[in-house]
Amino acid sequence: MKNLSKVAILASSIALISACGNQDKPAESAADATATTATSTQGTLDKIKESGTIVLAHRDSSIPFSYIADNPNQPVGYAHDLQLKVVEALKEQLGMPDLKVRYNLVTSQTRIPLIQNGTVDLECGSTTNNTERQGQVDFSVGFFEIGTRLLVAKGSDIKDFADLKGKTLVTTAGTTSERYIKQYNDENKLGINIVSAKDHGESFLMLESGRADAFMMDDVLLAGEKAKAKDPEKWEIVGTPQSFEIYGCMVRKGDTEFKKVVDDTLKGVYASGEINDIYGKWFTAPIPPKNVNLSFPMSDNLKTLLAHPHDQAEPQQ
């Protein structure tokens, strides 16, 4: 009996010590659980109404879609302007003229997880709508269509993808270009040394400094990097497009109410013709920070997409 009493006392003491030692943890876990539940079950429109704030994702170097130019606290770009159109629509629809906007920097690797966990409400940048990503997030109707090509130095012997044999190629981590070129390299046994940089700016820096022979990415993003180079005339975009991809804005999976607001806003901008002014501002006129003109006129494919907007995955070549 004495031994049993001692065991009981010891067990009680351990339980008491454990409870005291973890005194703050239950509250912390409960808060985390509540936050997780709210994020996963609360619609974006309710979240915005409750907080009085919408959180917009932005990139720092996806020129001219979403990037930082002169003001480090204010993203700019074609896709960013479209995001702001959604904000205007929300102010009116929710009766919230003082709706606040908060910006959250994302990368190619973090953009999808941060949409999924509710850290950001909307991402309009340079994200390709494809079937794999559709399993993780929902996409708005498309707002741009590109082809994946190569940026090289003028005079380079690289004119197309087959010429990459034994060369060093840089692309940006977490992009569809990275996935494609690795598959292309394996299938064709070209022995390409593929380097994945953290963002488009770093990718171009590798090319510019001679550490890579070519930079593979979406043609319009390559045009953006070329435009901001020290000597834009030193570089050229080459190669047969290996895929055609459509960019869309990302929202959380299954959030149909919020997606409808985004879709209706974009369709309205297209139908009114306002999209032509926004496009001209970023693709056929001087843009910050160096006031260089990308001289990238609207393609026939994009004109068709804007005339008949849809949220289907990217077309294949």
Question: What is shown here, in short?
Answer:
With 317 residues, the chain is α+β, with helices and mostly antiparallel strands. It has helices at residues 2-21, 25-41, 44-51, 78-93, 111-116, 131-134, 176-188, 200-208, 219-227, 256-272, 274-283, 300-307; strands spanning 53-58, 61-62, 66-68, 75-76, 100-105, 137-139, 144-153, 168-172, 193-197, 214-218, 235-238, 244-247, 250-252, 286-287, 292-293. The N and C termini lie far apart (82 Å).
Describe the structure.
The termini are far apart. The longest helix has 20 residues, at 2-21. This protein has 2 domains: 43-143 and 248-307, D-Maltodextrin-Binding Protein, domain 2 (3-Layer(aba) Sandwich), CATH 3.40.190.10; 147-244, Periplasmic binding protein-like II (D-Maltodextrin-Binding Protein, domain 2), CATH 3.40.190.10. It is an alpha+beta fold and 317 residues long. The protein contains 12 helices and 15 strands. The strands form 5 sheets. Strands 7, 8, 9, 10, 11 and 12 form a 6-stranded mixed beta sheet that branches. Mean pLDDT is 88; it is low at 1-40. It has helices spanning 2-21, 25-41, 44-51, 78-93, 111-116, 131-134, 176-188, 200-208, 219-227, 256-272, 274-283, 300-307, and strands at 53-58, 61-62, 66-68, 75-76, 100-105, 137-139, 144-153, 168-172, 193-197, 214-218, 235-238, 244-247, 250-252, 286-287, 292-293. It is globular, with a radius of gyration of 24 Å. A hairpin with a 3-residue loop joins strand 2 (61-62) and strand 3. 43% of the residues lie in helices and 20% in strands.
